[in-house]
């Protein structure tokens, strides 16, 4: 049986994906220069072009062990596939920022991704929100996660997480229950179920959504792989929301990745008496995360230019307003309606001034009267 | 019996304090020019100097009714006193900002304050935190209020509030229970107990702390007086903390005053599922209030230059650090300890670089090793 060019390339990718612990900037760079087949051949032959010496070091331990064919067979058996940068569903856009210099430590883009499920990787990676948090979630955290995940899924946002116990699992489950897309990024091989207690959940995600891993089949979960995996969770999400995190939660690492990659970071507040909200509160008070409370605020975080229903400045431009009118405008909260007296109070203007300003602004479409109270239009 | 100069002045102040609904900028301005006795005489005679015509309008309804002596008698009977700007305990510093132009709408300084209790007004008005919030507080809100008020009182901070049901009452009670100073600012006469159900609490505050009102004896509470009173709560506090507030809580008005007067504003987060935390969450996410969780963060809010135990930059100066060392410094959170790997990750530096930076910084006293993890010193 002859092997097609595609098969050769795929086997080369599979070889490259295993020959060094991912991500490996040296292999990526070699690949960019030679293409996957020649890059694989060069590593096997221990002979790389000048300037790529780092590849030999990174691949010294595994260069002679070629499990590419076996990996692809395992993948086929479990219904998984290897998605490479040559594939149309490669999430190039989502991963782009990982290629930038300041993420070099443990932070390059993946060379390829093993995926399992009917979801299309590039689409799920650019229309999703990561809901993450403590494994030891509280009942409150689980409740909020479930509400957010359902809400997002019903709006057809992919709910992305790490399939762990606690917040992760609740997020995936609620998205599945709502019939929406969900994506689990694993820190182990695509054929492994980690944690074991979530085998059934991971199988369900693989049936209805997408299970993703940059680790070749058979790879066991390890601490450093969680940290590496976390960058993919952040990169392949439009926003990252920490629902619950203790003082030293692993979620802080994904949150740090979100900030590093320029992904909007949200955190859900909770009782100040709850240990599992301490991390969220700290992120908010340190101005690292935006406080989010519901599906709507999460979507506004993920699409700041979209819904536009959060924050000031929505609605009409204020360029054509007089000074008094601008003060009135600024005195009306972004959400909700207020009375003329409240506006006068906040704006420091006389009620009569406010009343005439509102009249003009009403005609101009800047404000709306709702049962005697006023809100921004 | 002859009347002393002081008595004459006091009666003039008492007259002026009642002759118009406070605050009254026109009377204040007349007083500044003529002094209280002559100002009172001018109003009685309906003859004021040029440029003070506004006084006649503001005092038209009450000029002929002189209850000054009676007011002072009532005050004496209930152990209250009238504190004027001639008195050493006048809180000039705290009230100064109320005299500024942009607070003119319902916002001038009080002409005088009726007070009852052993506390010294100027001291309590400059070493306190206002704890405010919903009348319909939740069990959670009451618990947090109690914890904060006790903590503040034990550190000898005055706990200031409005003696209302809910958060206000819990704040005063917890401060009293901790044996600390507490100040209640009323929206009715100093001889009135509003709300009636808090008569006993207000009496206790008057015995151990201070009850304050700008309204003459007998004045009943009214909606506009709550709004006017709120500016005093904000002005006479070093920081204002909203513990719980619903979507349209009255606490928002005091919070608006805090911002207007430049008082640091804090808000306590709570469950996103709780209606009484909605207002707090909104203030935080709209960047109007700082998220606070405990006594320490409230004190740091009130004395940003004091304790200095919140936020970065505490401890040693970083001027003498190298670039790598500064990156390491910045990668260590303000609170808590982190591992070398976490620092390397956050700083985007190699572990070896971090290790040698930490060694130098340890010697320099910038960092401390705690059981293998590192924190800022």
UniProtKB/TrEMBL annotation, chains A, B:
Q: Entry's InterPro entries?
A: DprA (IPR003488), DrpA_SLOG (IPR057666)
Which Pfam families does this entry report, sorted A to Z?
DNA_processg_A (PF02481)
Smf/DprA SLOG domain segment(s): 82-300
**Source species, domain of life:** Bacteria
SUPFAM superfamilies named in the record: MCP/YpsA-like (SSF102405)
The similarity comment for this entry is: Belongs to the DprA/Smf family.
What is the protein name for this chain?
A: DNA processing protein
Q: Which gene encodes it?
A: dprA
